[in-house]
Design goal:
By secondary structure, this protein is mainly alpha-helical. The protein is 57% helix and 4% strand. The chain contains 14 helices and three strands. It has a three-stranded mixed sheet with strand order 1-2-3. A hairpin with a 5-residue loop joins strand 2 (267-271) and strand 3. It comes from Mycolicibacterium sarraceniae.
């Protein structure tokens, strides 16, 4: 099942900006340990904090991992005070450190291969991590189509609420609407276990999404069995990567840059052939 996405994920694992090696090591250690997951490897491992600025970065990274929606304006001010204009880059590093270990553990629990975390990384200081994220990883995942559009949208909306992303909650994917998705169905996501509109496959996918988001180190055998029962190996991998793609909203939420697309109601979009979000003209 290896494809170009594994190579992209490897790029993000081995990227090591020359002027941020300690920052990356700090963030990777704090996010992994907060989640009770094995942290991503780092060229400069950090086991102890040395300055008030590092304390501020570590605190922000910890809250980013636990519940990004609870990050306050004061937290953001502390981060900016610690890293200045590099705040966006630091938060992007938090996303990698936070979610790649979740993906790795989810795939392993499902019995799927993880070949993108090298045992002996060859560190690359020249990787533009933001470019890889926004122009390779996220659109690459969006182009995967083994999972039906309604299931993909149901999982996306679950993540939108979990992270309280105002932008994500204001959007509806057009192909899913055309395939039978509806506001009545989407309203049921909040109490999906008792829903008569969501299928058993939807419910299995939502249980797995919840586990990746809230308890990634404790994905139960029952949750994993539900995914295997209703989805092929290819689809299970896609579901895992979908949860990660959706969780990139944590970057915007953490920086309070997640304004809704419309003031009222929702806006329709589709994923174009390049895996990018395309809106109709307002």
């Amino acid at each position: 099942m290896a494809d170009d996405l594994d190579a992209v994920l490897t790029k993000l694992v081995v990227q090591s900006p020359a002027d941020q090696q300690r920052l990356v090591g700090l963030i990777r250690a704090r996010c992994g340990n907060t989640l009770s997951l094995t942290p991503l490897p780092a060229q400069t491992p950090v086991s102890a904090l040395e300055t008030d600025a590092e304390e501020a970065v570590a605190a922000f990274a910890e809250q980013f991992s636990v519940d990004v929606s609870a990050i306050s304006d004061r937290d953001r001010e502390s981060l900016t005070g610690a890293v200045g204009a590099s705040a966006f880059g630091a938060v992007a590093q938090m996303f990698f450190a936070d979610f790649l270990p979740r993906v790795r553990n989810g795939l392993e629990v499902l019995g799927l291969p993880v070949g993108w975390v090298p045992e002996e990384p060859v560190w690359d200081p020249g990787v533009d991590a933001a470019d890889v994220l926004f122009n390779q990883l996220l659109p690459g995942v969006a182009k995967l189509k083994s999972v039906d559009s309604v299931t993909t949208e149901v999982v996306r909306l679950r993540g939108a609420v979990a992270h309280n992303c105002r932008l994500c909650k204001s959007l509806r994917e057009g192909n899913a609407l055309d395939a039978g998705g509806s506001e009545s169905m989407y309203d049921d996501i909040e109490h999906f276990e008792s829903s008569e509109l969501l299928t058993e496959a939807h419910k299995a996918a939502l249980r797995y999404a919840d586990a990746l988001i809230w308890s990634p180190a404790r994905i139960s055998p029952a949750v994993a069995a539900g995914v295997r029962e209703h989805f092929s190996r290819e689809q299970a991998r896609e579901l895992t990567l979908d949860v990660m793609r959706n969780a990139s909203n944590k970057i915007a939420v953490s920086l309070k840059a997640d304004q809704a697309r419309v003031a009222e109601g929702t806006d329709r979009y589709v994923i174009d052939a390049d895996g990018q979000t395309a809106f109709a003209e307002l």
